[in-house]
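Ticket #4471: complex job returned nothing on first submit. Input attached below:
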Amino acid sequence: AQKVTQAQTEISVVEKEDVTLDCVYETRDTTYYLFWYKQPPSGELVFLIRRNSFDEQNEISGRYSWNFQKSTSSFNFTITASQVVDSAVYFCALSEALSNFGNEKLTFGTGTRLTIIP
Amino acid sequence: GAVVSQHPSWVICKSGTSVKIECRSLDFQATTMFWYRQFPKQSLMLMATSNEGSKATYEQGVEKDKFLINHASLTLSTLTVTSAHPEDSSFYICSARTGQMNTEAFFGQGTRLTVV
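Support reply: We reran it on our side without changes. The output follows.
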């Protein structure tokens, strides 16, 4: 069974501080995919990143960066120089890789509510 | 990215009535659509997976007769909450994928259902 754990329920930081959101996952699959989504107060889910299990390179996109470490089954997300607009709930998710493409289900973590204080 | 449109954004209905929620992929063909339910301050729980032209696959514990899912075309899936009760009040969100290998799922904006 797959499981995603986001131990941080809520985080508050002052604007311009850096913040790291933790994600730990469990899976028996050797091939899998990890995702991060942002859910602002309006409710929609905004895709941030997808990473496959064979690619352990860290990724940076503007103020966002991701640290994938298979050895610790972690896929952490860092926001540098945080801004008020970053306030949202962030979900980490995991999906298996199936032969019938497109049917892979996402298992979500419980989410981390991030509040950036002006 | 691709756009998934969900309608309505919010709905209030009386207990005992049925409510239909639509999920449309606007600029791509979605061979698979997923329906999730999210209670306040909780995570998204997958309810069912629907493939175009076939019966939906429901997750354990989800009543298929209560949550009717129809995926009649490659751009439209509907979720009907039948005989709604206050405990069905929740945020329902759909996502859609193409048939390509593990592309990201595109999510609709969600529907907040309140049953009174």
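Chain A has a mean pLDDT of 91. Closing as resolved unless it happens again.
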